[in-house]
Amino acid sequence: MLAPPLLVSLLLMRYADLEPYRQSAFGKYIARSMSHAMEAVRLAGMAVTALGAWHQSLWIIVAGSAIVLFGWLRGKISNA
User: Fold this and answer.
1) Residue 72, CB half-sphere, CA atoms under 13 Å: how many?
2) Which contacts of 59-65 are long-range, i.e. CB under 8 A and separated by 24 or more positions?
3) pLDDT tens digit string along 18-48?
4) What is the reported pLDDT for 32?
5) pLDDT confidence of 16, banded at 50, 70, 90?
6) CB neighbours of residue 71 within 10 Å
7) Residue 54 pLDDT exceeds 90
8) pTM above 0.85?
9) Environment class of residue 78 by beta-carbon count within 10 Å: exposed (0-12), middle (13-18) or buried (19+)?
């Protein structure tokens, strides 16, 4: 569950030209709002989602997904 995303991230950072994404509006939003705390929130949401999948519980999966979305959208929510 954790190894494939880590491997792909490392390969992308090493071999892909990510500068256009960094200069995009989304890239600037991420640079401004994605703190280590929000990365931890997203990781916690992923853990809740995985727990829900393990127990085959839709409401836990939805709750975990909501936590992940909060981690991604907190900057937009706090600026609204």
Assistant:
1) 10
2) none
3) 999 999 998 998 888 889 999 999 999 999 9
4) 87
5) very high
6) 21
7) yes
8) no
9) exposed
Determine contact, residues 46/57, Cβ cutoff 8 Å.
Answer: no
What SS3 state is found at 48?
A: helix
Average of per-residue pLDDT values in the chain: 92
Q: Long-range CB contacts (< 8 A, 24+ apart) of 68-73?
A: 68/41, 68/42, 69/45, 70/41, 70/45, 71/38, 71/39, 71/41, 71/42, 71/45, 72/38, 72/42
Length of the chain: 80
Span between the terminal Cα atoms of the chain, in Å: 34
Rounded Cα–Cα distance for residues 61 and 64 (Å): 5
Tokens at 69, concatenated: 């979305």
